[in-house]
User: What shape does this take?
Amino acid sequence: MPKDKIIKNRSSKFQVGLAMSGHAITDLYASFIFGLIPVLAVRFNLSLFLVGLLTSVTAISNSLTQPIFGYLSDKYNPRYLLAAGPLFSAIIISLMPVMPSYYMILIMLFLGNLSVAAIHPPTAAIGGHFGGRVKGFSNSLISFSGTLGYSMGSIFIIFIVEKLGIYFSPIAMIPGVITAVILFKYTDIAQKDEKIKSSFNYFNKIKNMNKYKILQIFFICLASYTRDILWIALITFIPLYFTKEGIKLLNVGYILIIYNLVGGIGGILAGYFSDRLKNKIILIQAGLLLSTPFVYFMFKTDGILPIAFFIIVGFFSISTLPLCIRVSQEIFPANMGLASSLVMGLSMGAASITMIFLGKAADYIGIQKTVNYIIILTLIVSILLTIYFFIPLNRKLLENNIK
Assistant: This one.
């Protein structure tokens, strides 16, 4: 292999590594709220609706705004977004637990998670730009790094609160500040040409977009929305469900770690196989379908089985995330940041808004019945994804885009 190609490969791997570290540290702070839910629920005497509002505000902020940051990432040098993500999320979210009122906590959650939103489109785009022949696998690694950080966040803040006290939570900002400095110094992404910048008119692109592409991205966003509503409902309600079943808060934190890590491993495996399969939709369908029976029986069993089923659900459902990202990038290869933000951000934002109503529903009908309706939605969407195979010119469009 020529020396310059070896250097280029090493540089590409380094950039992917930077994206992984930035994603991991930023998502560490995004999951603080899930470890704090049982504490805050007691501290402020919160109903399930108000608990659901905490996670909804979190996800709306760090997800629904992602298309905006995706636009900025595609138009400008994403280096600034990569550094801003861990910096401001670390500072603001670490200060959140010491706020004196529920509504102040909501405000801090919203502001802090804007920074979480900022880093997701550029990290996903780096996987597409620097992934070479294994773009699906690169995206799955970056996705796994976020899952790893996310899984550690709840136990990280629980450890600080239980060992030192809630007023020591600001020390948690240290890793984020250090990571921001490293990303700003070493991220090396070519600055876009001014002519290219001036040509970014997404309104015209959307207006002139092929209707088949719109239909394709609609189904991918629908699959992402279904996965996200299942995920956000479980990650919100299950800590409360397990603590009421007598499981200690610290042990719930460990369960959340395993849940997210196993899901991340599922994502890596899915990304690996997606590079070897022409049709990735089958893997997305399988992930959604296989998660549903375990969700149902999680509430029908006792002992260790509910925990085991909860973790298995993470494996199947979370594995669909990198698949949806990669398919969206194949549909819009020239705008990978924006494409990624649609399936990572827009779908999660819509799911978060839905979660507000699900929290209210859970107050009336209970957690189990609320989750049962989500199971039905998951089954319906899994079947509807079959339509994707019959979209006219589907394969031809993808081949033209890749070229």
Observations:
- The two ends are 25 Å apart (CA to CA).
